[in-house]
Amino acid sequence: MRSYDLGTLIPNFKKKDKIALAKLISIIENEPERAYEIFKHFEDNKNDSYIIGITGSPGVGKSTLTGAITQKLLDQGKSVGIICVDPTSPFSGGAFLGDRVRMTNITLHPNVFLRSLASRGYKGGISRAVFDISLLYEAWGMDVIIIETVGVGQAEFDVYNLAYTIVVILVPGYGDAIQMQKAGIIEIGDIYDINKKDLGGEDIAVQVEMMLDDTIFQSGWRPPVSMTDANNGEGIDDLLQNIWDHKEHVELSGLINEKKKNRFKYKIKELVYSKMEDLISKSLINEDEIDEIIKKALDDGKFKIYQTIHNKFEDVNFEIKKKS
Ligand SMILES: Nc1nc2c(ncn2[C@@H]2O[C@H](COP(=O)(O)OP(=O)(O)OP(=O)(O)O)[C@@H](O)[C@H]2O)c(=O)[nH]1
Ligand SMILES: [Mg+2]
């Protein structure tokens, strides 16, 4: 797929054309090796966005909250780039639509951009795509980036390393403290928010407070707990204040530098691993050899495929042993 011409996309992006932004994200998603061609046009760009991660089980109201927070930020004149990592379904249509429907009014605003990503099928993994898109949002000049993810699985876990403030969303009826501890939830949050407070939630807020009281926080930051009703915009100011307080804490304590380093570390490792994979697989077996094995398997019987591969790697092991 030869997609778009960077010669026109980059100048349009620099003129804040959202279509150019959308197309550049598509390039980054589908042809990650072209990220280099894109980002070399921004080498003198010094923008730093503040990156917030919003996580929680499916349906707790992450998108609705993201919408409500974004609206407040817009009212304060800030620009916001949103990345929604599509939760559970590999058939993402429904969820994508859900994100859009819940955030329609804000995404029409010139200072907001939203991209939903399915959590599977990315070369280099979802964190690669999230990193690259966040970098593009920084190039755009976004003040704030919000990454929404469902808090399960390694892929999502990696995403936490890309944000500076992690907000964990819980809801009434989530379960008890033991479940929360088992899920590792209590370790990852910088801020806890009990959403859907219109449905109750005092009990869970008390449980979370108690658990936090029992925990020692090395960084000196004791996560605050807020309660919101995202549908009606209640409690959003408190939540946002907690986010800014945490931002201030990480900036004043210098922790922000660690977090920034961490973010880039992930990127560098991923680049190195994918390069290595490429080099190693190419040096062990080339396309002609693969074709040859396939032909043999098809001609001589498919069950021989393992024998042929086994023989092939016997040679390789021998080669490596000889060299080492
Ligand atoms: N009663 C109540 N419902 C809410 C509240 N916030 C969100 N909802 C509803 O909860 C449902 C799920 O909201 P979403 O914002 O899509 O939740 P999500 O966590 O982004 O969901 P996934 O991305 O699918 O995991 C929707 O029907 C919302 O209208 C709230 O504060 N109170
Ligand atoms: Mg959502």
Note down, in words, how this protein is organized.
The protein is α/β, with parallel strands linked by helices. The protein folds into two domains: 44-255, P-loop containing nucleotide triphosphate hydrolases (Rossmann fold); 285-323, no CATH class. 56% of the residues lie in helices and 13% in strands. It has helices spanning 6-14, 18-30, 35-39, 62-75, 93-107, 126-140, 153-160, 177-182, 185-188, 202-213, 236-253, 255-284, 287-300, 305-323; strands spanning 50-56, 80-86, 112-118, 144-150, 165-170, 191-194, 225-227. The protein has a seven-stranded parallel β-sheet, with helices on both faces. Helix 10 (202-213) links the parallel strand 6 and strand 7 (225-227). Helix 4 packs parallel to helix 5. The longest helix has 30 residues, at 255-284. The chain starts with 5 loop residues before the first helix and ends with a helix. Mean pLDDT is 85; it is low at 88-94. It binds guanosine-5'-triphosphate and magnesium ion.
- The protein's oligomeric status is single chain
CATH topology of the largest domain: Rossmann fold
* Number of H- or I-type helical stretches: 14
CATH class of the largest domain: Alpha Beta
Helix and strand run: HHHEHEHEHEHEHHEHEHHHH
Low-confidence stretches: 88-94
Ligands = guanosine-5'-triphosphate, magnesium ion
Strand element count = 7
Largest sheet: 7 strands, parallel
The name of the CATH superfamily of the largest domain reads P-loop containing nucleotide triphosphate hydrolases
Estimated helix fraction = 55-70%
Q: Could you tell me the strand content as a percent range?
A: 5-15%
- Strand arrangement within the widest β-sheet reads 3-2-4-1-5-6-7
